[in-house]
Amino acid sequence: MAGDDAVVVMPTGSGKSLCYQLPGLAKGGSALVISPLIALMEDQVATLQRLGISADRVHSGRDRESSFQAAHAWRQGDLDFLFIAPERLGLQSFQDLIQEHPPRLVAVDEAHCISHWGHDFRPDYRLVGERLPRIQGAPLVALTATATPRVQKDIIEKLGINDARRFIRGFRRTNLGVECVEAPPSARAAMVKRVVADPTNRPALIYAPTRKETEALAAELAGVAPSAAYHAGLRSSTRDRVQTDFLSGKLEIVVATIAFGMGIDKADIRTVFHTALPGTIEAYYQEIGRAGRDGQTSRAILLWSWADRRTHEYFHSRDYPEVSVLEKVFEVLSDQPTPKDELQTKLGLESELLVAALNQLWIHQGAKVDPEVNALRGSDGWRKTYRAQRDHRLAQLEDICRFAGGRSCRMTAIVSHFGDRLDSGGDCDLCDLCVPKDCLLRSYRSPTGVECRVLTAVVDALHESSNRTTGQLFKQTGEPEAMARKDFERLLDALARETVVEIWSDSFTKDGREIRFQRAALNSEARLRGDFDPSLIELTAEVASKAGTRKKRKSSKRAIPVSTVLSSAEESLLKTLRTWRLSEARRRRIPAFRILGDRTLEALVRAKPSDDDELLDIPGIGPTIARKYGKKLLEMLTTG
Questions:
Q1: pLDDT for res 220
Q2: Do residues 63 and 78 both lie within one domain?
Q3: Longest C-alpha distance within the chain, in Å?
Q4: Can you tell me the mean pLDDT for 480-503?
Q5: Distance CA 604, CA 167 (A)
Q6: According to the model, what pLDDT value does residue 117 have?
Q7: Does residue 338 contact residue 372 with C-beta atoms inside 8 Å?
Q8: Neighbouring residues of 484: CB distance < 8 A, sequence distance ≥ 6
Q9: Is 425 helix (H, G, I), strand (E, B) or coil?
Q10: Which of these three, 140, 168, 196, is where a domain ends?
Q11: pLDDT at residue 554 is higher than 70
């Protein structure tokens, strides 16, 4: 209201939109809102219009006439709010429109997308700060639910709002107890079933990693209470029915994939389960935030194992190739455009790996790639930003693993992660580490003889030297020949839980990269006490796998019949799809592989889906792609 710039970081559902809507209305004139999500824009515009507020939007999902009318209304000063996608700022016609009728306030929603560290890195959003003309007297408000202190700093720098005030608050949930249990995938369904069998733990929302697992688990839980699966592959009528029945109480359990579980908003959810490790703490916090919105005590339970981490690492290596791979591609590029096929021949790289490398070089300005996927050399400064972003993605995975295996209050760890400056910093007295006896699934056991020996050695070593890295302690006291590092870490967990030791994170910089590790020291009271009885330390009991052979997890995507050669009709259809993809890429001024990959096009040709549901079964086709291009793809597949 005073005209100052601001960065607002608040959880989903806490009223971030009001932070630009109220000042925008009170200041008079028009407010410009930049948002990367079409669905979010549509929802917010519809909400404002229902309240009698003049609002409109301009994005790729609207026809030319509708966009023209919205622009005309802005020019005439008839709009209170205009929502735009970030790509609009790159058009000179839109720049002219802003100059003709300057906004009184500018809001950048989902502002974490601006940052190199944001979990939805997007080139056009990165350029918002450069493209957005600063209008005198118009404050800029950046809003997000998922910005860590590092992301907040990057947002401020990228937008050039160095004097912006930060408002980071509301992350502590005083009625939500968090419990993390290390368990093999084969044991998790039975653990979920055991908890939700108690009616006091329902309604329950369960996040599963794949569509197949949502359906299998929902079917298994149906014998406990009314249950249903909820994922993108279901017909829209089915999804609507599941959501309506869950909200009305006809269903007590919904098992959802992460992508579509966000559509469920129910105040009295008592338990939120995750049956696999999320990719980031930011994503995890948003999802557990659906529990206990009525203020009653609720539980969030995470089932995880190191196998989950390996799955995330696989996807990371696929999407973020080694720097050396990008170097090879960069070295063969020149100031003359080189076709992708020629690059593939020169480098001998697999097509998917080459496309991933080109995509990252394009994002980080190390290559200029036209819609036809001809590439030429870009800026030489790509290494720093790419290496930093690649390392940050791994650091996010490290953060969630460290959280899951953490040794301190779960809620305090979350609040600290987001940098909530107004938080008390006190323990929650609800989670599995604050009140382990209240756990629904975690159980404890006495240490074995070997473990007692190691526990005593750790305490003795810390008496000798008060500050050790956990790696040093393992080498000195962990009996590596008899004990794995993760088992040693469990012993440290137990010592920390019993307040014998304190453990904290530390880091150093090497070759421009941040190396993170952990340190341990004796608690002040434990240091004063001379006696230590390791048999009194309670260790977390491991969950055993279910008896029998573990079945290999299958993809939830449809199995597409593969033949080595396409028929002439299929070749013709593939050519049609490629021509359309190129046209769309030219229209959006991006490389063709940013629309759809070659394998996805071939899968479309082989499977020939006939409706939205079958389309969503194609590998590489998700809800966003289906919503944006589904109608056109089905039309080509039907007539081709």
A1: 95
A2: yes
A3: 83
A4: 81
A5: 47
A6: 64
A7: no
A8: none
A9: coil
A10: 168
A11: no
549 in any annotated domain:
no
Mean per-residue pLDDT over the chain, rounded: 86
Number of domains in the chain: 5
pLDDT at 248: 92
Residue 288 belongs to domain spanning: 176-311+419-436
Tell me: the pLDDT tens digits for 317-330? 889 999 999 999 99
Banded pLDDT at 563 (limits 50, 70, 90)? very low
Tokens read off for 374: 């001809």
User: What is the pLDDT, as a whole number, of residue 553?
Assistant: 43
Q: How many angstroms separate the CA atoms of 631 and 615, rounded?
A: 10
Q: What are phi and psi of 182, to 5 degrees?
A: -80, 120
Q: d(Cα 112, Cα 148) in Å, to the nearest integer?
A: 9
Are 28 and 129 in the same domain?
A: yes
**Amino acid identity at 274:** H
pLDDT, tens digit, 9 for 90 and up, residues 413-426: 999 998 887 888 89
Please give the pLDDT value at position 53. Answer: 95
Tell me the HSE value of 309 on the side-chain side, using a 13 A CA sphere. Answer: 16
Residue 55 has pLDDT above 80, yes or no: yes
Cα–Cα distance for residue pair 211/243, rounded to 1 Å: 16
**Between 255 and 92, the higher pLDDT residue:** 255
- Read off the tokens for 494: 């137990």
Whether 45 and 142 share a structural domain: yes
pLDDT at res. 131: 79
3-state secondary structure string, 79-113?
Answer: CCEEEECHHHHHCHHHHHHHHHCCCCEEEECCHHH
540 near 182, Cβ under 8 Å? yes
SS3 content of the chain, % helix, strand, coil (to 5): 45, 15, 40
**Residue partners of 571: CB distance under 8 A and separation at least 6:** none
Listed residue (407, 425, 408) closest to 416, CA to CA:
425
Instruction: Spell 553-565 as b/e; 16+ CB within 10 A means b.
Output: eeebbeeeeeeee
The rounded distance, in Å, linking the Cα atoms of 514 and 117 is: 14
User: Do 13 and 147 lie in a common domain?
Assistant: yes
Residue 292 corresponds to which amino acid?
G
Residue 541 has pLDDT above 80, yes or no: no
Torsion of CA 140, 142, 143, 144, to 10 degrees: 170
Output the pLDDT for position 300: 97
**Cβ pair 31, 104 in contact under 8 A:** yes
Contact 419, 152 (CB under 8 A): yes
Tokens of 353: 């790996």
- Cα 553 to Cα 556: distance, rounded to the nearest angstrom: 9
Does 561 have pLDDT greater than 90? no
- Strand order across the beta sheet in which 367-369 lies: 338-339, 374-377, 367-369
Q: Show the tokens assigned to 405.
A: 């295996």
